[in-house]
Amino acid sequence: MAYKYVRICGNRRQAGVALGKLARPIMSAYLAQSGTWEALRPWRGHAFLDELGQQARAALPAVWEELEGLAEGLRLPLEDVLLWNCRGDLLHSTADGCTSVALRTADGARWIAHNEDGDPYLRGRCHLVDVALDDAPGYLSFYYPGSLPGHTFGANRAGLVQTINNLRTRQRHPGVPRMLLARAVLDCATLDEAVALLRALPHSGGFHHLLGAAGDPRMFSVEVAPGATSVLDTGPRYGHANHMVHAQTAGLAQVITDSSRARQHRIERIVDGWSAGAGSADLLAALHDTEGDLPILRMAADDPDEENTLATAVFEIRDPDVTLRVYDRRNKAEIALDVMSEPE
């Protein structure tokens, strides 16, 4: 199995502690082999990291409490856990990839699907966490060891669905770290609330958020970067890789890797070719496409971005229900979950 499924219940700190305990057995070895961690270490004690922490604590106190719990569960200094969760805000390029697609079908269903691409070391070492919180809807999310959930693929029990693609912006601005902001989106009850949150807070890094929700026919592609937030309706079909493509943000300074460029071109060609009868099988086929030297499904040991596909998620939104199915590289469904049901 590409991940382990775990249920967590409690308040913010308790949830963070539980997440930390899940990651504690492998965290030392994970960081030791990580080029990203090596690149981050010079930022220890830097005033800019302190500023990011202050902004996060002020803007998102509940999420900050989860981060404190995460550090406690990991038995690591809070500063180091904050540093790890600010990697995309401090470094221009990190090993977090991903491709996302959206489809609206004639029967009114909305589909959001996503390849979670990351450090190949994490293959089989991640979790799917099912978190019930005392003061928020609770959520399902793919969980990287030591990183707050939300910056991968997830959905909450209010029916809000979010997938995240890494954007490699070249700007560093004081603001709320992107991974904490992505976690906060999963506390939102509606699409409008999620978009308002993304518009309202200052951003220190860049992410692409693909958003949908039960009870709302819309789906949004949101590109967030320091000083900019662009929100587009996806229309009936949409694909996005790892660089900014909206008219409002495409001209901002960013790193566009060869893989991201190739996957963006390929996913656009695929979704443009879908017929009126396209459905879940087409979404999965798109994300498991292996055409070209730098394909959408990433399995190469010599991937130039040092990333491999760790899991593929397909969200089916049929009011009032949301279903998540997670697949491995062989198109085998490893798990199917009703997002709207509470963990026992």
Automatic annotation (TrEMBL):
UniProt cross-references to InterPro entries, sorted A to Z: C45_proenzyme-like (IPR047794), Peptidase_C45 (IPR047801), Peptidase_C45_hydrolase (IPR005079)
Pfam family, one: AAT
Domain of life, source organism: Bacteria
Domain Peptidase C45 hydrolase: 107-329
NCBIfam families tied to this protein: C45_proenzyme
Protein name, UniProt field: Peptidase C45
